[in-house]
Amino acid sequence: MDIVCEPEPVLRRRAAPALDVVRPEDLAALVLEMADAMRAAPGVGLAAPQVGISARLFVMEDGPATWSRADPARREERERTEPLPFTAVLDPEVHPVEADGRRMFVEGCLSVFDDGQQQQAVVPRWRTVRLTGTAPSGEPLDLTFTGWSARIVQHEVDHLDGVLYVDRAIPGTILTGDDLATWAGAPMAELAAHLGFALPPGQA
Predict the structure, then answer these.
(1) 197: in domain
(2) How many Å apart are CA 59 and CA 155, to the nearest integer?
(3) Contacts of 123 by beta carbon, 8 Å cutoff, 6+ apart
(4) How confident is the model at residue 77 (pLDDT cuts 50, 70, 90)?
(5) What 3-state DSSP class applies to 56?
(6) Is residue 62 domain-resident?
(7) Which of 191, 146, 152 is nearest to 43 (CA)?
(8) pTM metric for this prediction
């Protein structure tokens, strides 16, 4: 299963309810194919529009297999210390827990590149969110996520609304090439000082 990239129109379209697009008998196979594509990329989340299907469905997973690429100190800063088990969600809705405020971290996407090269940018997201939706089994989901898992949820739900992380990025923070290699894994206080933006009160 190929992952499509900007400027594919499907990435800029609000997706339809999942079962308006995917036949129930095809759902389990699609979820497995999306899981395989996400892990092969490798990534921690994948929305159906990223594989060319305009349906409100995404999968996510984060843990030791992907942590090996991240510095332990940065994982702790990003609250990326608890494994996120494989989760598939149909027709999700995300509800911010505003009392927890926002956090800014460097974020990338499997569908967004700069002239074929990887890029990332600083994106503010809610620290804690409540996710509601439906599991592929038909069971209702009502889950709360904090830290990096909450960021994954918000990133993937954005995909279902035709929104990419670069739309939410802090202006002037897109990192490519040598800047990406140097700064993507830096402490956020250092990156904020380097690029000249202010961190939220709860993070500063």
Answers:
(1) no
(2) 11
(3) 104, 105, 106, 107, 151, 165, 168, 169, 170
(4) very high
(5) coil
(6) yes
(7) 152
(8) 0.96
Whether residue 4 lies inside any domain: the answer is: no
The predicted pLDDT at position 71 comes to: 86
Domain boundaries, position 134: 9-101+128-169
Evaluate whether residue 109 is within a structural domain: no
Render pLDDT for 138-175 as a digit per residue (tens, 0 to 9).
Answer: 999 999 999 999 999 999 999 999 999 999 999 999 99
Strands 117-126 and 175-176, bridge-based pairing: antiparallel
Strand partners, 107: 121
Q: Is the peptide bond before 7 cis (omega within 30 degrees of 0)?
A: yes
Contact between residue 172 and residue 196 where contact means Cβ atoms under 8 Å apart: yes
Q: Please report where in the chains the tokens 């129930």 appear, as a residue.
A: 24
CATH number at residue 159: 3.90.45.10
Element (H, E) at 43: none
- 79 as an active site residue: the answer is no
Please choose, from the candidates 169, 122, 130, the residue with its C-alpha nearest in 3D space to the C-alpha of residue 150.
130
Tell me the C-alpha to C-alpha distance, in Å, between residue 94 and each of 25, 53, 89, 128: 27, 21, 11, 10
Which of these is catalytic: 61, 77, 107, 156?
156
Around 165, how many Cα atoms within 13 Å sit in the side-chain half-sphere? 27
By 3-state DSSP, what share of the chain in percent is helix, strand and coil, each rounded to 5?
Answer: 35, 30, 35
The domain total for the chain is 1
